Amino acid sequence: MGETPPPNAGKIAACWARVRTRLRQEVGDVEYRNWLRQMSLAGVEGDTVLIHLPTRFLRDWVRDHYGDRLRLLCQAEMPGVRLVELRVQAAARAEKPALEQEVAEASPLAESLAPSVPAAAAEPVRNDWLVPLDPRFTFDSFVVGKPNEFAHACARRVAEKPAQAGFNPLFLYGGVGLGKTHLMHAIAWSLRERDPNLSVAYMSAEKFMYRFIAALRSHNTMEFKTQLRSVHVLMVDDLQFLIGKDNTQEEFFHTFNALIDAGKQIIISADKAPNDLSGIEDRLRTRLSGGIVADLHATTYELRLSILQSKASLAGVEVPPRVQELLARKIASNVRDLEGALNRVVAHAKLFGRPVTLESVPEVLSDILRAHDKRLSIDDIQRKVAEHYNIRLTEMASARRSRAVARPRQVAMYLAKQLTSRSLPEIGRRFGNRDHTTVLHAVNKITELMAEDPAFAEDVTLLRKMLEM
Ligand code: ADP
Ligand code: MG
Question: Is residue 180 within 6 Å of ligand 1 at its C-beta?
Fold first, then answer.
């Protein structure tokens, strides 16, 4: 790699312009303007791209939040590049670095892509809490099934009567792609529809933090506080991102209290229940659990199928029931992946003007299906479960029925059913040639126990998450 002659400066700068454009598309204009615009390309040394940022704060922020993305984009756009190094260089904001100057002169296109010299002052926090809501995320398009019916009912209730005792805050939690953001937007749509004057602020916890820090930087925290406290409904998505961010957490805690005390509705989502969010202060945890906590459970085959039916009916191409069943069976991870697979199948059919058939799907989705099959082997499940309950792997297939081994075995069968596309008889065979009714019994038993015993449910959920990682 060291042998490659250095590409000329103009070429590098053009590549750099493309990297910036792609970053901007990915993170959006506002974020780009506040954090990334101030990057300037200082050069390429060997296989390393050197980038300057004007302050250490910005350098650290960009490295922590965008470092990986930046590296991948540079690797993709700049031949021979492997690493990206971010350096603090105070002069970077005063003058355009030579490389960018050069390309700006050489190519009008690159100029429009290349950044301008950043404004000296930090941008004030603007009153644009009302981020656009996704028009697809409404109650109408949300398919209700066993795993999400409670969360959905809570969301409906809050949408009808915000800030009601017992439902404030509403805390929604669950794994990725299970509908948390969808439900939050649905509540917001519904509230706005009923009362267009109601101010509903929706933001990710990351955005909350980013705005708070931007306010600190520009000495505008008063404005930040006033704006936030003036909303009627505050929604903060993916709260887990505040973990370990002490200042921001503190600020969030105060905002939270002020709003609740003023009778405003708060809606939070996270990947875990308040009690399981480690790294969150106890007093915040207590407040988060003070209203209603609702779990979005992992999807079941039935829910996945209903979601596919609902989405397929809008696809504009016929997706035969057999294909829907195949997808629902094979893509068990979450709704987002399921949607992705359906979209691909539909796009493919439209593009080539061919009908969707059971035969065409495995080919169109070969990579996705392989990834899912690979992740979900019965062996992996047995091994992990045995390890977790501290029993020998051979007990998974043994005839022993003592509770100490039978229960973990049932858990493993349950997880095999949930996480793989194997049929009941296939699963039975892998557990010491047991009958499919034994597997079915195990699945029902574990489902039942999970409903009765939260500690047990948590345990199984944890196992599942570890397996899905
Ligand atoms: P999360 O925020 O929990 O990670 P999202 O709300 O972003 O998940 O959902 C991922 C995708 O799956 C979205 O496109 C969403 O519309 C869709 N989705 C999730 N659950 C459902 C559901 N029950 N019915 C319809 N679509 C759903
Ligand atoms: Mg989300």
Answer: yes
353: left (phi over 0), alpha (psi -120 to 50) or beta: left
CA-based nearest residue to 174, from 269, 271, 239, 241: 271
The model's pTM? 0.60
CA of 182 to the centre of ligand 1 (A): 5
Per residue in 311-353, pLDDT (tens digit) is 999 888 999 999 999 999 889 889 999 999 999 999 999 999 9
Residue nearest to atom 20 of ligand 1 (CA): 179
Report the SS3 class of residue 42.
strand
C-alpha 3 chain-centroid distance: 41
Angle at 404 between CA 402 and CA 408, to 5 degrees: 110
Distance 246 CA to ligand 1 centre (A): 30
Residue 225's CB: how many other CB atoms inside 10 A? 16
**Domains in the chain with CATH codes:** 9-88 (3.30.300.180), 125-296 (3.40.50.300), 301-373 (1.10.8.60), 378-468 (1.10.1750.10)
Q: Which pair of tokens denotes residue 448? A: 């039942």
